[in-house]
Amino acid sequence: MLELTMATVAGEDAAATAGMLMADAPSEPGEVLRVGRDGTVCRLVPPQDWLFVSRVHLEFLCGPDGAWQVTWLRGTHADPSSLVLLTLPGVQTQPLPYGGSAKLPRGGSGEIVIQDRTAPRSVNIGFYHEG
User: Fold this and answer.
1) pLDDT tens for residues 60-75?
2) Would you call 14 exposed, middle or buried from its count of C-beta atoms within 10 A (0-12, 13-18, 19+)?
3) Which residues pair with 16 in a beta bridge?
């Protein structure tokens, strides 16, 4: 099972969370959870006017071994208007490359932050991958 929580944070509200949303999916091969502005394909959707988040920004995919990975999907722009930061247990926060993927640890939790490059706004996604 992969569990996701999403909070949107803006400006002076950096210490507060607004609109906490949750989604989960069983750890079965081929299961997918998406984060982005397109509510028809994404389970977690930030505000529609937050254009630094793509229509489909992040994709969480369960592989054949039941392990999950996250991919920052490439959009229509060569240079993204956001930065994606990944924090895993016991590992320093690191950027996730545009179009890149990272495996999520089983039995672990962490955070992925989609950060606006032009304003103090972010979409914070916590995850827990059951072992």
Assistant:
1) 999 999 999 999 999 8
2) exposed
3) none
How many CB atoms within 10 Å of residue 92? 6
| Rounded Cα distance, 49 and 33, in Å | 21
What three-state secondary structure class fits 21?
strand
Pairwise CA distance, residues 81 & 109, whole Å: 26
Strands of 68-72's sheet, edge to edge? 32-35, 58-62, 68-72, 101-103
Angle at alpha carbon of residue 72, lines to 119 and 99, rounded to 5°: 110
φ and ψ at 71, to 5 degrees?
-130, 135
pTM of the shown model:
0.92
**What's the pLDDT at 18?**
55
